[in-house]
Amino acid sequence: MGIRSKPQGPDFFEYFSQQANHLVEGVELLTQIYAASPEERVALRDQLHAVEHRGDELNHEIIQRVNSSFITPFDREDLQSLASHLDDCLDFIDEAGDLLVVYGIADIPSSLDSLLDAQIDVIKNCADLTAENMPKLKSPVDMRDYWIEINRLENEGDLAYRRTLTALFDSGLDAVTIIKLKDIVQGLESCADAFEELANVIESLALKES
Question: For residue 84, with 0-12 CB atoms within 10 Å meaning exposed, 13-18 middle and 19 or more buried, which class applies?
């Protein structure tokens, strides 16, 4: 009689890697939305919504698997927190893209353009770094360079955020446009903050596992 193979449980690490890949895809679409004309942004926003929807479905799948699995690689609360924070990152990316469409801002002043680019670059770097490092989650203690770099990027994002707000209030634009752009700037800042919170969760997990 042949040896029966041991049944395999869900591969949570693969799920988290898929979530991180959704972040890269989402930021790429956010970048395209920012660079596109108001007419082109709608279709790109819809693509971003579709990515966010797939992310939600994956997040629900992870939570269900966590709750139904007899053995998990980490504490259930930690797995749920990881899934939730990855999902938060994608939600904020989707929200930032949606604001660019809803507010219909056609021309962003050149004084603000490069500063907004800097904020988006921070988010893109955070997403790329997260996707690159998520396969290492099996040994979170080895991810120290990841959370340190995310923290550095978030600080860089904070600086870009403050500079963008200063330039915005000095721009001489009408009040309504300033309010709209301020919401977009704050939305981008929320994206960077979400990545830092995710990194903090992974750092805490590493401390528990060390």
Answer: middle
The four Cα atoms 87, 91, 94, 96 give a dihedral, to 10 degrees, of -130
* Domains annotated on the chain, with CATH: 12-209 (1.20.58.220)
Measured CA to CA, the distance from residue 13 to residue 2 in angstroms comes to 30
Residue by residue, DSSP assigns 43-79 as HHHHHHHHHHHHHHHHHHHHHHHHHH-SS-SS-HHHH
pLDDT tens-place string over residues 10-25: 689 999 999 999 999 9
User: What's the rounded Cα separation, in Å, for the pair 170 and 167?
Assistant: 5
pTM: 0.92
Q: pLDDT, tens digit, for every residue of 67-98?
A: 998 888 899 999 999 999 999 999 999 999 99
Q: Are 68 and 57 in contact (CB under 8 A)?
A: no
